[in-house]
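I am writing to request your help with a piece of structural work I have in hand. I set the record out below, with my sincere thanks for your time.
___
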Amino acid sequence: MPQSLPYVDTRVRVRYAETDQMGVVYHANYFIWMEVGRVEYYRARGTRYRDLEKEGILLAVVEANCRYVAPALYDDEILIRTRIEEGNARKVRFAYELSSASDGRRLAEGYTVHVFLGPDRKPRKLPEPYHELFGVNAENLTK
């Protein structure tokens, strides 16, 4: 298996609207934070997701997983660590670690798998100029 790419760190602060009556973050918001991490991952690597879309490259989520470890609370600052765990010419798997920025306490971990689509929303191979961004190399090009 090819070595995964390094993490990109992003921080968000828990808003009141993201919590329940007890001030605990509602579980679905972790997937939103994963998306924030992905968008910032692209930006940190020199590409904006908007630019990928302009090039006709769409990413469809085909699998999402989140393991909740400890609750995040209103006004906590959350550290989202995002990396590409595996990429080939057809799909990419992102891994996430979410923790408390103040004390490092692990809150959740998860992953999402995305397939590459063209503007017609049909599966397509990732164009070569984007292989490095998504961790595609000769070893996993044909998968």
Summary: The CA atoms of residues 2 and 51 lie 26 Å apart. The chain has a mean pLDDT of 93.
